[in-house]
Amino acid sequence: MRRRFEQVWEALARVGDGGAAGYHRFAWTPVDLALRGWFEEQAARRGMTYERDRNGNQWAWWGPPGPGAVVTGSHLDSVPGGGAFDGPLGVVSAFLAVDELRERGVTPARPLAVVNFTDEEGARFGVACVGSRLLTGVLSPADARELRDADGVTLAEAMRAAGADPGALGRDEEALARIGAFVELHIEQGRGLADLDAPVGVASAIWPHGRWRCTFHGEANHAGTTRLADRHDPMLPFASTVLAARDSAERLGALATFGKVRLDPNGTNAIPSRVDAWLDGRAPDAETVRAMVAEITAAARTAAAGHGVRVEVVAESTTPVVRFGHELRDRIVAVLGGVPALPTGAGHDAGILSASVPSAMIFVRNPTGVSHSPAEHAGVDDCVAGVAALASVLEQLACR
After folding, report:
1. CA distances from 380 to 99, 186, 199, 371 (A)
2. What is the model's pLDDT at position 241?
């Protein structure tokens, strides 16, 4: 199994690899199309039936597609400068779990499928889990088609350029009706399992989280001739808001991050006319998230008023707390011999699907806890343990 994992992993790892700059695997780009080609090839090598649904999600079926299926997989896209494991580990492990089951000589009693959900990270168009949100109807097709990337390209335009039909987007009742259970394997994006000295674990819950766009409208002017007293510089209230976000998160036991910023006109010798900044907010409960965002918004408005700047705060996406169903989760824990169950602050497709179908997650140990970074890593032995664990779970769910 170790050799097979290394062979499959190395072939995929080359796609979109930027070396020290990390991975840049964005939806509906040439790199994404190469990843999709890899998925289709893996399905063909195993004699699995390949499908692409109306929202661009990819499916590989062992057995005839149909209701009551046990589905596993994850995503292949990345954040800007991301690591190799976030998403792809789940897809690679899913295919290898199929191989493992075949080597064990078991045959599924119900359909079994591997899935690659499109645009989970939202790196290009700003909304996470687009494929699973569209599948379940959480994201409307009209809103999805109008999402734009940094160059102004809409999702609809990007899909057409990639040979996909944006007119078909929308809740997919047929695909949902097929899923009897969904199990997503993922590298843990934290140090929980490392601290517990456990190679694998399961998810108990996903913190509520969201993304808010904060736009500060100021006045462009010359950096060398405009007196400080005459400026309406949107960078100043933005900077105050970043500090306020850290203070609020620390006090409330939450997490707040400004990780994406866009300036206009973005010139070294020009006072900006506008700052767009995206706030990522997360906490153990929705009330804390709301309280934190309200505090940050109030701080932004106060700071903006002090500099003659106007500010707008708009929620771009919000996800409620996900508590994975005890029945499926406890069944998986039992199959795996009592592995740890722990919550996570990271969002996943499994969290989106959990409102519609029984869903669960298996985590693989991350020795440093680093994720969304080129330094993200999981040891080969732990990855192989994850494949074995996933295979055992699939055997329990689909083969008995």
Report:
1. 17, 14, 11, 17
2. 98
